[in-house]
Design brief:
The chain is α+β, with helices and mostly antiparallel strands. It is built from 14 helices and 19 strands. The strands form 5 sheets. Strands 3, 4, 5, 8, 9, 10, 17 and 18 form an 8-stranded mixed beta sheet that branches. The protein has a 4-stranded antiparallel beta sheet with strand order 13-15-11-16, with helices on one face. Strands 6-7-19 form a 3-stranded antiparallel beta sheet. The structure holds the ligand CCCCCCCCCCCCCCCCCC(=O)N[C@@H](Cc1ccccc1)C(=O)O and zinc ion (2 copies). Pathway: Amino-acid metabolism; Lipid metabolism; fatty acid metabolism.
């Protein structure tokens, strides 16, 4: 289905089977990568020593990638890496795999094992970056290393872009600009983002794969209130802190509108419908009737709520200079994630109306509109290749559906190179592991990591297809 079946694949698929020695080597390579604290602390605050060490490290664990004549390696912006893997058939449009080597900070508190230990315990490799996103950096290079060791020569060229500052909204622009200057246009891009989701929806026991075909926009908005400072023994009726606190509280208490009806989520739920027991299957198959009910249920859970509206997160608050001084200035930063059915401008208008206090100043620190929706139809090569590989590597997963990524990814810097951007990690994710991303006790099972390598190993080979995806009449 989709890609038209076996006849579209290369005659000699290299089996995705790895020896015991290779399996040990691949998990040890990931552990070593976790051990290098490539932390992005804040704008312009990166651990350059660790990033340089990481560059040396990948050279040492993937020697074949670095010595193969048709794989070109370039260091971009000092610590990012771009690999160009030259295919044998120039008529096939290239694609690109993305991942990032930097991680968010991880103070030791609360972790079962130190976050940069890369320790293996109970079948899991523990540490910051095991899910976000050194697993992908290492799995992509590992899969390529293993393919090259088996004398694989791709037909379709591809790029691997490994950013070093994704966590501070960084410099993928440099790679993107370089490729644009070289006249590169890509068939598609695959980046981090969504997963095979397990346990996010009550009553749905079966896992389902969501390939994100768009991502939400984002606004970082600073609200500021200035008042005259003075002696705290004779305070005014309202201080800058009180005015600002009331404004941000109004924002927190007034959620942005529920956009369920206009979003991709409706499509996703319709695809999931028949996996649910009665009566949920009937309800989800008839959203024209039950839409309002379903959208109310979805917004009750804080994770699924993020799928139906622009979210409002109060993330920073600063005020005050001394215990007995009326504060001259109070500042708060609010991080909005903009629903794909809205624009930054629409959200800012709503915010002004909710705050409704002209003593509160607005400073937009950064803003990006939601990303365009990539195709997911039967002709969409990247989407169909992902789908085909999911079916092969995860045969137990019955549903593969398009969806929205609630976070932002480096792929947003590449819209100049392609209209087909897919955000998908070939890993299971449950609500607990979701909490560990940017949280504590991030870990990946050894088995899941091996499966991620297997997925990429098969995906690269599947991408050598030279035929357009063909339509099929019905889904099972
Ligand atoms: C049909 C029902 C589905 C159930 C939904 C379950 C949702 C599952 C969540 C999937 C995980 C989402 C992980 C998103 C990865 C985004 C990566 C990231 O964290 N990016 C940063 C980028 C950034 C932006 C601005 C400044 C610094 C960094 C982010 O904050 O978005
Ligand atoms: Zn990430
Ligand atoms: Zn992250």
């Amino acid at each position: 289905k989709g890609l038209g079946g076996q006849k579209h694949q290369r005659a000699s698929q290299i089996p995705s089977e790895f020896s015991q020695g290779e399996r040990v080597a691949m998990k040890e390579a990931l552990k070593g990568a976790i051990h290098i604290p490539t932390v992005s602390f804040g704008p312009k605050e990166i651990n350059t020593t660790a990033l340089a060490e990481f560059g040396e490290y990948i050279r040492s664990v993937f020697p074949t990638v670095f010595k193969t004549s048709f794989v070109q390696h370039e260091v971009i912006g000092e610590y990012s890496h771009l690999f160009t893997v030259q295919g044998s058939d120039p008529s096939l449009q290239p694609y690109m795999l993305l991942a990032h080597s930097d991680v968010v900070p991880a103070p030791d508190e609360g972790w079962e094992v130190p976050p940069f230990s890369g320790l293996e315990h109970d079948g899991f490799i523990h540490g910051r970056g095991t899910l976000d996103n050194k697993n992908s950096v290492m799995a992509i290079l590992q899969a390529l290393e293993l393919l090259l060791l088996r004398n694989y020569i791709p037909r379709r060229s591809f790029f691997i872009a490994l950013g070093h500052d994704e966590e501070i909204s960084g410099g993928a622009q440099k790679i993107s600009a370089l490729l644009q200057a070289r006249g590169v246009q890509l068939a598609f891009i695959v980046d981090e983002g969504n997963f095979i989701l397990d346990g996010f929806i009550p009553n749905l026991k079966k896992p389902f794969a969501i390939i994100a075909v768009t991502e939400k926009g984002a606004i970082n908005l600073m609200l500021q209130v200035n008042t005259t400072p003075g002696h705290s023994s004779a305070p005014p009726k309202e201080t800058s802190i009180g005015i600002l606190a009331a404004a941000v509280s109004r924002l927190e208490q007034t959620p942005m509108p529920n956009m369920f009806g206009s979003g991709l989520l409706k499509m996703t739920l319709q695809e999931l419908a028949h996996e649910f027991p009665f009566p949920t299957n009937i309800i989800l198959s008839n959203l024209w009737l039950f839409g309002p009910l379903v959208s109310r249920l979805i917004e009750r859970n804080y994770i699924t709520n993020a799928l139906v509206r622009t979210t409002t997160a109060l993330t920073m608050f600063n005020a005050g200079v001394k215990v007995n001084v009326i504060p001259p200035v109070a500042q708060a930063i609010i991080n909005f994630r903009v629903d794909p059915a809205q624009t930054v401008q629409e959200v800012l208008e709503l915010v002004k109306n909710i705050v409704a206090d002209n003593r509160v100043q607005f400073h937009v620190l950064s803003a990006i509109d939601p990303l365009p929706v990539s195709p997911s139809d039967h002709q969409a090569l990247g989407y169909q290749l992902l789908r085909q590989t999911i079916r092969s590597v995860f045969p137990e997963v019955n549903i593969v559906a398009p969806g929205v990524c609630i976070g932002n990814t480096d792929s947003r810097h590449y819209t100049n190179l392609t209209t087909s951007i897919y955000r998908f990690n070939p890993l299971y994710l449950n609500p607990q592991s979701f909490q560990s991303i940017h949280g504590i006790n991030e870990k990946i099972s050894v088995r899941a990591y091996e499966t991620q390598v297997k997925f990429i190993f098969e995906f690269i080979q599947n991408a050598d297809t030279d035929q357009e995806p063909v339509p099929h009449l019905h889904e099972l």
